[in-house]
Amino acid sequence: MQLEVMNSPFNEKQADLLNQLLSSMTENQKIWLSGYLASAPALAPKTLPTQSGGEVEKTKAEAKQRSITVLYGSHTGNCEELAEQLSKNLKEKDFQVTVSSMDDFKPKNLKKTEDLLLVTSTHGDGDPPDNAMTFYEFLFSKRAPELKDMRYSVLALGDSSYEFFCQTGKDIDARLEELGAERLYERIDCDLDFEEAAETWKEGVLEKLEEQSPSAQAEGVAKAKETAVWPVYSKANPFRAEILQNINLNGRGSNKETRHIELDLEGSGLDYEPGDSIGILPENEEKLTDELIQEMGWDGKASVTITKDGEIRSVREALLSVYETTVLTKPLLEKSSTLTDNEDLKALIKDTEALKSYIYGRDLLDFVRDFGPWDVPAEEFLSILRKLPARLYSIASSSAANPNEVHLTIGALRYEANGRQRNGVCSVQCAERADAGNTLPVFVQKNRNFRLPESGDSKIIMIGAGTGVAPYRAFLEEREEREDEGENWLFFGEQHFVTDFLYQTEWQRWKKEGLLTRMDVAFSRDTAEKIYVQDRLWDQRQEVFRWLQEGAYVYVCGDESRMAKDVDRTLTAIMESEGNLSSEEASDYMKALRTEKRYQRDVY
């Protein structure tokens, strides 16, 4: 409806203003305005209330006064992406939001925080991610304040195959309650296939917050749902990248097989930085899949529904590419116990130590053989399996040096356990079933916690063993392209110099050209006494400490349970020895390096 000047008591300017207002109003707003003007024509205030009454406006204002803080503890980048998306959705609904990593958040501000939403992963033996360590320690210290005016909710990411599943999230959730905070929405613990559970948590949190915000419009909700979509190519919609090259980096006689794989990203729109990872959606082995189908007595060609939306696959296709079959978890055994009367299985689940011992090194085929026979329809059994998780591999190239390409360094995992040969799902697929010309479904996993320093003049110390050297190849390619002046020092470890010196010619070329300032290597099986990268670090402790004092950045990539922990202990010992520091002072020095982003780890 448009007001015409000739048919109204308004001048042209007034008519234009009214037309603009009317075109933006809802039907309820028009009805309210009509009633308001009809009931009080002579008493109309100078400023009209903006909602259906003063009390509602007051409630809205009070709700908006509560600020929201979104904190994340992220190792691989998943939690950071979820936190950023949540923050975006909240801002679209006009909430006042700040988002940061836990360690970038000033602990003294915790007391003033009103609504706190935390997204965190867990790794190792229930440890918090590196960029959550300081916050976590403060929260559990005596300095943590009472939080009676705070509301909070926690989203925890983890891997149910580990004993301390989502432990960091559980710890923080319990501690905030202990400090007096009110739980806004129940914690949700996510497994590797976290997307659906994370979305449930996000929707639940938004609903709770909106209960305090009558101003939220239905159109705003629709807008948020529209914007919460995946990029063109992502984990939910991977890009089929053609394999350009796939070669074995190890020499003849090595007991290892490390593949250098080059992928074509042209046309994908995917971009990455050194420090990021490539996710690959793998497929299970056909032999293992067929043996499992035979053991269960299923028809591999029969159809099963695999999603809530009704997507249908054959049993064989589902076991090949949808469900995880090579890892056992406690939740899986607990769910499967409801599908059988086997008393031995129920007894095993009750014995924690026996259960841990059984799960280690066994897969789904072992399990169904040990506790069969089973009389369960395929769809019912498959519904208790978790989705086959993507595998992440550190990128070994710079996009500046290799436009439209990405390079990976993947060690094939093969071992024998419980009388059967075992193969890594993705690594052996890449070693045996990924020839040049074939394709792999991939996506980029950002990792802002493992980045080159902004200044090209900064020194860097790179520490890695085996495939942990991959990101350092990307680092040096990038620094070479940028013509950075900062010095670069590599510590690399493997078993044998002759067969296992990954990218040897490249390191030696960079060393000769001066890009690689120093290189210290440790080949553990070439000497009577095993020598590791942490030993080389200790040998060079005086120079390492000097570099740190001069502002060097330290990077660690590789196995978390052994190498990374040994390196951490060695670096702390270097602080004590060369800096003449006490154990506590050395620990504080290491914390300061983390806080300054000068100690970064990509460990697994």
How many DSSP H or I helices? 23
Report the average pLDDT across residues.
Answer: 89
Head-to-tail CA distance between termini = 63 Å
**Largest sheet entry:** 6 strands, parallel
Helix content: 25-40%
Task: Please identify the structural class as seen in this structure.
Answer: alpha/beta
Name the overall outline: globular
The total count of strands amounts to 21
Q: Hey, roughly how much beta strand do the residues contain?
A: 15-25%
Poorly predicted regions: 39-64, 216-230
**Radius of gyration from CA coordinates:** 29 Å
What do you see in this structure?
With 604 residues, the chain is α/β, with parallel strands linked by helices. The protein contains 23 helices and 21 strands. The strands form 5 sheets. Strands 1, 2, 3, 4, 5 and 6 form a 6-stranded parallel beta sheet that branches. The protein has a 6-stranded antiparallel beta sheet with strand order 12-9-16-7-8-13, covered by helices on one side. Strands 19-18-17-20-21 form a 5-stranded parallel beta sheet, with helices on both faces. Strand 1, helix 4 (78-92) and strand 2 form a beta-alpha-beta unit. Helix 9 crosses helix 10 (315-321), helix 21 crosses helix 22 and helix 22 packs across helix 23. It starts with 11 loop residues before the first helix and ends with a strand.
